[in-house]
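Example 249.
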Amino acid sequence: MTEIPDDHPRAQSLRTRHRIEEGVEKGITSKQGLIAQGRGEAYDYLLGEQTTPSAERAERAAAAQLLLADHPVLSVNGNVAALVPAEMVELAEAVDADIEVNLFNRTEERMAAIADHLREHGATDVKGLAADARIPGLEHERAKVDEDGIYDADVVVVPLEDGDRAEALAEMGKTEIVVDLNPMSRSAQTAAIPIVDNIVRAVPNVTRHARELREQDSSREELEAIVAAFDREAALEEAERAIRQGELD
Ligand code: PTJ
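Predicted structure in complex with PTJ:
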């Protein structure tokens, strides 16, 4: 791997790409994950590779929603594990959430490799391996969940998947926080709180907001007011407008 100089104009993006490549080499990320990363990069390029003010508001609302939850669960796939393993563990700690591995291209080897990778980055309890429950109405492997994990959750963070699982989870009555750079994806369209931002920026931002809200001793009423003030339609429209206009410097 060529060393990426700090002053390279797209240094962060190239480093992110390299992490996905490493994920594939370690058996964590699927080959399809490389394509998913390419799709994400294209949207991020048009967003100027920065968190928009509307994404920042979504990240704060997500933090409040996670702090209000009885049983929040963060879902992890092969791309998320490669890009933000330590950051997911930090977010789980900040909001007292479970972490569960859930894969589209599910194999026992990849499940174990991702769980080990998360443990190497500080996770103590990784769910998803028991797979003793199913999300109703889904035929593929993403239906397999843990009964004391996603199946039982009231709030689920669903990053980087454009698919029918988000719709099925919503039908189960779960509140969904989606991280996806494509505001037109089915997951983003279904989410109570769609975060249109790169996961490498979104997860640390949600953690920062959660810590701030906790430090301020925010009451339930204050957290509920933050969630209620968040306008998901406006957030999706603003993101789509920014991407279509390609607001670059
Ligand atoms: O690990 P598995 O087996 O569960 O497979 C995971 C992938 C990602 C391969 C699978 O879920 C998939 O094919 O996803 P899609 O349908 O390509 O959707 C991925 C979505 O995530 C797209 O809408 C991308 O724009 C978006 N995306 C990709 N990279 C990022 C991203 N969003 C935020 N941050 C990124 N870094």
